[in-house]
Every structure is written in structure tokens, then in C-alpha cells.
Write a structure and sequence with these properties.
It is a single chain. By secondary structure, the protein is α+β, with helices and mostly antiparallel strands. Among the domains are: about 150 residues, NADH Oxidase, CATH 3.40.109; about 100 residues, no CATH class. About 35% of the residues lie in helices and about 10% in strands. The structure holds cobalamin (B12) and iron/sulfur cluster (2 copies). The site of one iron/sulfur cluster has 13 residues, from helix 7 and helix 9.
Length: about 375
């Protein structure tokens, strides 16, 4: 017997999913064209994800041979409380999807759906955010929502604060959607106008090389021309969703806050060792899984949000600017400049006693480049 969509939906909803639909497991030919086109236009930057092997990510049969259906699930992510009011130290903001393990909750719901299918003798594989499939396109085909001009999938009446995933199965599960959801953007252009870096270059197309959500994940030097625009964002960017009118709807089915972290104490982060950082933030995508990239971003945010006369901030920035790690030194130097404290770098070329010749050799060219 093949479980019906209603039966699968009931199990998904009982296990943490908020919306469940189904679609045929045909190839996502349009998305394949979009992925190739964006790579060709240079909009994917160094991103791998679904850009690494677009043929694979757009062909559900590569996930499960003889796949016939996709049972698609969406999990709403409600925000975590900010601790900023109770603490006066500088803090970096975390995007809503990353404040809590929402993907864990999504996986639980999808696993439960897959369990019903496998118990009935069918093949079933759960995929979400793992580049085996294009999750938004699957949810769109299942009728869960429309593509907003910010490229996010918006669910009618609920907005876009959802993570998405699917169960790929060789069972034939009929969809009950009457085609794709109708466009709900209309003439609105708030996300295009509101993006701090102009990354939405035309409706439905994001240039990842300009998107802060990618820049905080990408390894290496944080793009200079995006540092001021980064503002207080430590991880992720919600701006094109915050300004989106359909997201202002109060989702009464998911009231309150989740047990997550809406912001992070930047000085504490900068003082934390690598293994503790990976333990705390390992869920996030951190370039090369190297916590220096988190510190690098924290230094930029510090430059944007800290008080220039805060002695703890000054101490951390000066120590880092004069320190042995040239990547971090460059960002600390930038932050001091941004805070109007370039004066503190004057001694860099006539080093204080603590700076070794080797450290100076590493840091001095960086200082000349950034301040000079
Ligand atoms: C690569 C990626 C990124 C990249 C690039 C995003 C991009 N828009 O290009 C970066 C790192 C920047 C990123 C950022 C974010 N991401 Co992301 N990301 C992905 C990933 C891994 C692959 C996406 C992909 O392959 N896209 C393919 C391209 C071609 O499709 P697309 O960008 O969605 O574009 C579609 C529409 O534009 C539409 N379209 C085409 N032409 C036109 C024209 C018009 C007029 C319109 C309206 C639409 C339209 O068709 C395209 C193809 O289907 C997926 C996970 C997965 N495995 O699917 C998550 C995923 C898309 N990301 C997700 C999230 C939550 C985010 C962030 C909100 C996180 C954050 N707060 O920082 C931001 C949002 C930024 C944004 N505006 O997109 C969710 C989206 C949930 C939702 N409701 O839409 C996903 C699905 C992860 C998940 N499993 O939940 N992401
Ligand atoms: S996530 Fe931020 S930077 Fe990226 S497109 Fe949206 S508003 Fe722009
Ligand atoms: S801000 Fe406006 S145009 Fe952009 S996704 Fe939301 S409704 Fe659509």
C-alpha cells in the first residue's frame, strides 16, 4: 500500500513540520538552466553547494534510483531572544535561520515521513540543505509557495521564515496542489531597494559575490567594499526578508521565541579558543571550518558597532593588529581605522617591546595597506 499525502502530512505535522506537500520527482530543468546561467555570469563566486554539480542537484533520480515523488516539508523558524538589552558589551547579530538548530527540527519531521514510507516497503531518502537537491524548487513545484523577488520561497499567509527539505521516494504520492502558488510580490520592490549591498541585481537573481549571507561564510579576506554594509551582522543576513511585507504577518501558530541565540558577545568570541568555537558554532557554515573566519567577521562587526573609547575593545583590536595572524591583523587594523583609532597603530613601524621582528614583518605591510 502507498501511504496517501494526507497520511504522510499528518505524520510530518505531528513531528515538527509546519507545511507538507508533494510533487513529481522529475528533473528540475529550469533550475539547471538558472544554475548554469548564474555560474556563467560570475554570480556564484567561489560557492560550491548546488553549483558544484548542478546536474546531480537537479535530478532526484541521483538521490534515489527510480524516484517518483517528493514529499516536501517546510519548518517555520521563530526568532530567539536578544540578550543585548541586559549586556552592554558589543554584540554581533545572528540571522534567524541560524539562531537555533531549525534544520534538526526539519530533519526530525522528514525522518518521520520517510519512516512511514519505508515501513510500507518503499525507498525513501531525506534531503535538505545538503546540495543533493534544489530545495526551493522542490517546494515551489509542490505548491508550497512562490519565488519572491529576493529569491526566497514565500508561503502564502506565512512569509519566508522557513527552512525547506524533502523526502525523495519511489512511491507514487499524488500532490493535492493546484499548480504552483500564485505570485504574491506584485509591484513591490522593497527587497531590491533594501539590500545593503545591492546584491539582488534583478528580480529573482542574487549575485552571491555581493551577498552578505555568502560573504560571512566565504573563506579569506572579508570583502572590503562590504565591511561597512555588514553592520552588526556576525552570521547570515535577514535584510531582504525583514523588509518583506508578507513577513510582517504574525504567525499565530508559532508564537513566542525559540531557545536560540539572537546575538553573540564579540569580545567573548574573540577570546575563545578554536575547539570551543567549533563546538558552539559548528552548526554554521564557516569557511574551511576554520574559526579564524568567524573571528575575522567579528573584528569587522566590532569596527562597525563598538565604542572607540571602550578600553576592552581597544585592547583586543590593538593586540590583534600587532599579532602574528596576518588575516586577523588586517581586519583588526581596518576596525581601528573605522573606529577613528588609527592613532593607535602609529607605533606599528617602531614596534613596542612586545612585537617581534617576525610579527612586525607580517603586520607592517598590512597596516600600510589599510591605514596608509
Ligand atoms: C546557494 C545557497 C545560498 C547562496 C545563494 C542564494 C541565492 N539566492 O542565489 C547564499 C549563501 C547567498 C544563500 C543565502 C541565503 N540562504 Co541559502 N541556500 C543555498 C542553497 C545551498 C542552494 C540554492 C540554489 O541552488 N539555488 C539555485 C538558484 C538558481 O536558485 P534560486 O537562487 O533559489 O533562484 C530561483 C528563483 O530565483 C527562481 N527565479 C528564476 N528567475 C526568476 C525571476 C523572477 C522574477 C523571480 C521572482 C524568480 C525567479 O528560480 C530560481 C531557480 O529555481 C539552498 C539549499 C539547497 N540545497 O537548495 C539554500 C537555501 C536556498 N537558503 C536558504 C536560506 C534560509 C538562506 C538565507 C535566508 C540565510 C540567511 N538569512 O542568511 C539567505 C537568503 C539570501 C537570498 N536572498 O537568497 C533556504 C531558503 C528557504 C526559503 N524559504 O526560501 C534554503 C532552501 C536552505 C534550506 N534547505 O532551507 N543561500
Ligand atoms: S541576504 Fe542580505 S545581502 Fe543577501 S540579498 Fe538578502 S539583503 Fe542582500
Ligand atoms: S520584499 Fe516585496 S518584492 Fe521582495 S520578496 Fe517580499 S513581497 Fe516580493
Amino acid at each position: 500500500m502507498t501511504p496517501t499525502l494526507d497520511e504522510l502530512r499528518a505524520v510530518g505535522l505531528a513531528n515538527g513540520l509546519d507545511v507538507v506537500g508533494a510533487a513529481a520527482a522529475d528533473p528540475f530543468s529550469d533550475t539547471l538552466v538558472s544554475l548554469r546561467g548564474r555560474s556563467h555570469e560570475g554570480l556564484a563566486g567561489s560557492m560550491q553547494f548546488t553549483y558544484r554539480n548542478p546536474d546531480r542537484s537537479t535530478e532526484p533520480n541521483r538521490v534515489l534510483p527510480a524516484a517518483r515523488s517528493l514529499v516536501v516539508g517546510a519548518r517555520h523558524y521563530r526568532p530567539a531572544r536578544s540578550q543585548a538589552e541586559s549586556v552592554s558589551r558589543p554584540r554581533g547579530r545572528v540571522a534567524r535561520y541560524a539562531q537555533h538548530d531549525h534544520y534538526g527540527a526539519l530533519r526530525d519531521g522528514l525522518d518521520a515521513v520517510a519512516g512511514v514510507l519505508t515501513d510500507a516497503g518503499w525507498g525513501a531518502r531525506v534531503v535538505f540543505d545538503d546540495n543533493a537537491m534544489v530545495d526551493r524548487a522542490a517546494a515551489h513545484r509542490a505548491g508550497l509557495g512562490w519565488f519572491g523577488k529576493n529569491t526566497n520561497l514565500l508561503l502564502p499567509g506565512h512569509g519566508s521564515w522557513f527552512v525547506l527539505g524533502a523526502v525523495v521516494t519511489d512511491a507514487g504520492v499524488d500532490s493535492d496542489a493546484h499548480g504552483p502558488a500564485a505570485d504574491g510580490c506584485g509591484p513591490c520592490t522593497r527587497c531590491l531597494d533594501g539590500c545593503p549591498t545591492g546584491a539582488i541585481i534583478r528580480p529573482g537573481v542574487v549575485d552571491a559575490t555581493r551577498c552578505l549571507a555568502w560573504s560571512v561564510q566565504a573563506p579569506g579576506v572579508f570583502p572590503r567594499d562590504q565591511r561597512v554594509a555588514l553592520g552588526d551582522r556576525l552570521y547570515g543576513c535577514d535584510e531582504c526578508q525583514d523588509v518583506c511585507p508578507p513577513n510582517r504577518i504574525d504567525d499565530r501558530r508559532q508564537p513566542g521565541f525559540c531557545s536560540g541565540q539572537a546575538d553573540v558577545d564579540l569580545l567573548e568570541l574573540l577570546a575563545t579558543d578554536d575547539s570551543t568555537l567549533l563546538e558552539r558554532f559548528g552548526r554554521w557554515y564557516i569557511g574551511n571550518r576554520d574559526p579564524r573566519h568567524l573571528r575575522r567577521t567579528a573584528l569587522v562587526v566590532l569596527g562597525n558597532v563598538a565604542r572607540p573609547d571602550d578600553p576592552k575593545v581597544v585592547e583586543v583590536l590593538v593586540t590583534t593588529a600587532f599579532g602574528p595572524d596576518d588575516l586577523l591583523a588586517a581586519h583588526a587594523v581596518w576596525a581601528l581605522g573605522r573606529l577613528g583609532r588609527g592613532d593607535l597603530l602609529a607605533g606599528l613601524e617602531s614596534p613596542p617591546g612586545t612585537l617581534t621582528a617576525v610579527e612586525l614583518a607580517v603586520a607592517a605591510p598590512v597596516v600600510r595597506e589599510v591605514v596608509g
